[in-house]
Design a protein that fits this description.
Distance between the termini: 62 Å
Strand content: 5-15%
Strand order of the largest sheet: 2-3-1-6
Shape: rod-shaped
Helix content: over 70%
Number of strands: 6
Amino acid sequence: MQEIIEEVLDYLKGIWLKRRFIMISTWLICPLAWVYISQLDNVYESEARIYADTQSILGPLLKGLTVETNPEVQIRLMIKTLLSRPNLERITRMTDLDVQANTSEDYESLIDDLRANIIIKKTGGRKENIFTITYRDKDPQMAKNVVNSALTVFIENTLGENRSDSDSAQKFLDTQIKDYENRLLAAESRLTDFKQKYSGVLPDQYGGYYQKLNVVKEQLKIVELSLLEQETQLKSAKAQLNTSPTSSGNTQNKIKNSNSIQTTYDERISELETTLDSLQLRYTENHPDVKEVKRRLSQLNKLRTDEIDEYFNAAQSGDSANLSTSQNPVIQQLQIQINQLENQVASTTVRAQDYRQQVKELESKIHILPEIEAELTSLNRGYEITKNKYEELLNRKETAQLAQQAGETTNPIQFRVIDPPRAPTEPAGPKRILFLIAATIAGVGLGVGLSFLFSQINPVVTSSSQVSKATGIPVFGIVSAADNLGLQQWHKRKTIIFIVSNGVLLLSLSLFIIYALAPNAILAPIRGLL
């Protein structure tokens, strides 16, 4: 540690011996820098404070009914875009600064100066939207005008952004609604054409192709089972009629009453005619049920005619056995039951044939119908998607219109100017005192650096330890210089010159500082002398 201290002291002694470089540096740098600093133009700063109130009373009332925007985000965005080139050009026009620019280079320099010197920052807390806009200029009135223009641009852009966003949203929604309306019409047209083209094979109330085929097959099974039951009942009734004791002698005579010529086929014919009338009300002449009933009716009419002819022939020939009719009620009831069962069998047979035809037709289209149903499903899905999107856009448009009307009624952001900009009376800069002190420190520091550099380049021995280090020979004693050599007087003169030089510099620095603080205190005596 002692060696380090001695080494530092040796360096300081070397600097002190070369102190003339400190005087040279300070006299060359400090006066020139002080004069330059004292001649700097004054800069005036204008400031404005503004409060942005984002608490709108319509916000809670319209919550969920309109599009909610975040005013905080809008304000932050406008702060970032305030110094954009279009806004800066607008400020130059509002303050007539563009008139002062004679060339494009001057105009670009003016824009850069505004971008660098206009400062907007948030001065309130996190929940307080208080902003400060400041600007510095050589002209106090121009500083005020620039701040006022920037304040105007900030407020107008923030309020105009909402209207611009609403108009843009309305135009976008109108365009999209028109587009989706055309898509919806096209989808409806395609769906209508498809349904018209395949109207006979499209899925009905039974569902799709496979479901419809299964339903028809199930119905066919039920009808076939019913037909089998009816045929079994018919066979049983006929067997009972054949085994009846009174029916053996009357099997050839089927005339129930010889006076009215009423046959056993009349009731069946009447029932079939009623059935035919009912079918013709629902179906056309080409329907299988209608055709089958007509065929059965024609057959029964022929049998009735043959029976009547047989009756007349028997009457002419005198065959009384064939003219007698059965008066047994059991036999009559069996004959009625047989007639009813035959009608049911005929009707059920027609239904079974119809279901078989449907199954056959469906099975023949097994490769076509699924494709048609898949295409129909695709068309319906596309139509529903387009329709839902169209209705959603209409709802969004209503919401946007309500939000726009609410924005026109009251703005979500209210600006209140707390401190309007004013033309400053006192300059805000430059900080001459700081600059003067910094220039003085720079001059002295440069001189110290030069002294240290030359003391190392051309060293001077100042202690016995330096001799020992340089020669490697121990020093046993020191001989001081005699007064008659004049060395001490010479060193004293150099010290006095150094002190006087620095004293003059400090006095000059004091005068420059006084001039910076109170220019009239220095200029008034000079003007009095002149």
